[in-house]
Write a structure and sequence with these properties.
The protein is mainly β and about 425 residues long. The chain has three domains: about 120 residues, Sandwich (Immunoglobulin-like); about 120 residues, Cupredoxins -  blue copper proteins (Immunoglobulin-like); about 120 residues, Cupredoxins -  blue copper proteins (Immunoglobulin-like). It is built from three helices and 31 strands. Strands 20, 21, 23, 25, 26, 27 and 29 form a seven-stranded mixed β-sheet that branches. Strand 14 and strand 15 form a beta hairpin. The longest helix is centred in the first third of the chain and has 6 residues. The radius of gyration is 21 Å and the shape is globular. The structure holds CU-O-CU linkage and copper (II) ion. The site of copper (II) ion has 5 residues, from loops.
């Protein structure tokens, strides 16, 4: 089944698309609607809650500035590298930008050296919750703080953006340890956009009132129902939670109750508790809706088998994560042509879970361990694949270029769990 390395295809239809460099870049002309300059530094800095850590900042803070755009806006971000020795880039995690704007060092651009800069330009096309981060020596630079959030939408009155990150062993929300408060009047419909910028899955959720999971990875959930449960937020993934603020307030909990945001009327002390043991399962959450393509008619069927192997692999000693028995860069690329319906079966027998992230595309989850999705279309750009689990996903190859497909536990990516999706 697996199609690796781009031999001749059996697809039966013709693909006319040759990659044209102009197609791969964002709009080069036009006045941006949103223009931001982000200056990357290596430095000691203070978390918003006061602790000093050593790491990386954008414009002096980590998380870097929240970037907001509306659907249709031309976004321009200039990255200036002041003092990040290994160089830096900005990757727009979850935004399906043109390939040349994707910010992957060594693939879509060179890392921006100290003293250099790089301008990214793309059209904000899909409303949603996203984040950006360096994609150069990512395991070190993201962990150290070289990231921020980006929201594409009109600002809603009850909007809360919460980036969860662990600096030097301290778990934070928007750079603050402990408990914090955001004032919102009772009765407001709050949309809490949660971003997991760490390397492992985290249970999150609202305490004090039932909530709906209204979007995942920047895509709406169809027909969400109210739950009292925790949501398992994969590393790199996003979830939007919606609830009406009760009179006594409510609380966003990230993992344990001691890292949280009270959301409610000024002066209230919203309830504090651990998250319920029950977990939202998107496989059967919400109601079905049209996908816009037929995953039953696949032009490509890929297998993505995740394993682990100690010793010499592809000539290098180490303890490696593998894809179909190989480690990056020796994993053959997944070759597609523009317009293909692609099915991918991801299986994991590596002994650990992996949050798998595909750049430039959103895929829909078809099944887990052979059990089909029965709820809302479940679109992802980042999917937690547990040990001994198998997922089937499908997507349309609609964004030409060379794209990464890797584990977002970033040390795992540098230990081999990374490959490319490549348009022929
Ligand atoms: Cu958020 Cu390839 O990364
Ligand atoms: Cu992994």
């Amino acid at each position: 089944y697996a199609d690796f390395g781009g031999g001749p295809e059996s697809g039966g239809h013709e693909h006319h698309h040759g990659m044209n460099v102009a197609d791969l870049t964002g709009p080069r002309t036009g006045t941006p609607d949103v223009a931001v300059t982000l200056t990357a530094r290596k430095q000691k800095f203070q978390l918003a809650s006061g602790e000093t850590v050593e790491g990386y900042t954008l414009n002096g803070t980590s998380p870097g500035p929240l970037i907001r755009a509306k659907v249709g806006d031309l976004v321009q971000v200039t990255l200036v590298n002041e003092s990040v020795k290994d160089g830096a880039t900005l990757h727009w995690h979850g935004i399906d930008v043109p390939n040349a704007e994707d910010g992957v060092a060594g693939v879509t651009q060179d890392a921006v050296p100290v003293g250099g800069n790089h301008v990214y330009r793309f059209r904000a096309e899909q409303a949603g919750t996203y984040w950006y981060h360096s994609h150069q020596v990512s395991a070190d630079e993201v962990k150290g703080g070289l990231f921020g959030t980006i929201v594409i939408a009109p600002k809603e009155p009850g909007e809360v953006v919460a980036a969860i990150h662990t600096y030097d062993g301290k778990r934070t929300i928007n750079g603050r340890t402990g408990s914090q408060h955001i004032d919102l009047p009772a009765g407001t419909t709050a949309r809490v956009r949660v971003v997991n910028t760490d390397n492992s899955i985290l249970r999150v959720g609202l305490i004090g009132t039932p909530y709906k999971v209204v979007a995942v990875d920047g895509r709406d959930i169809h027909g969400p129902t109210a739950v009292t449960a925790a949501y398992p937020l994969a590393a790199g993934a996003r979830v939007d939670l919606e609830a009406v603020v009760p009179a006594g307030g409510m609380r966003l909990v990230a993992g344990a109750a001691n890292v949280s945001v009270g959301i409610g009327p000024a002066g209230t002390e919203p309830p504090s508790a651990e998250l319920p043991a029950k977990t939202v399962d998107l496989l059967k959450y919400g109601t079905p809706a049209a996908l816009g393509f037929d995953p039953g008619k696949a032009d490509r069927n890929f297998e993505y088998r995740i394993g682990r192997r100690p010793g010499f692999l592809d000539g290098v000693p180490g303890l490696w994560w593998t894809i179909n028995g190989h480690k990056y860069p020796d994993v053959p690329m997944y070759m597609v042509a523009e317009g293909d319906v692609v099915r991918m079966k991801i299986s994991n027998s590596s002994g650990q879970a992996h949050p798998m992230h595909l750049h430039g595309h959103h895929a829909v989850v078809l099944s887990r361990n052979g059990v089909k999705t029965t709820g809302s279309p479940w679109w992802i750009d980042t999917l937690e694949v547990g040990n001994d689990e198998t997922y089937e996903i499908a997507f349309v190859a609609d964004n030409p270029g060379v794209w990464m497909d890797h584990c977002h536990n970033l040390p795992h990516a540098s230990q081999g769990l990374m490959t490319h999706l490549m348009y022929e």
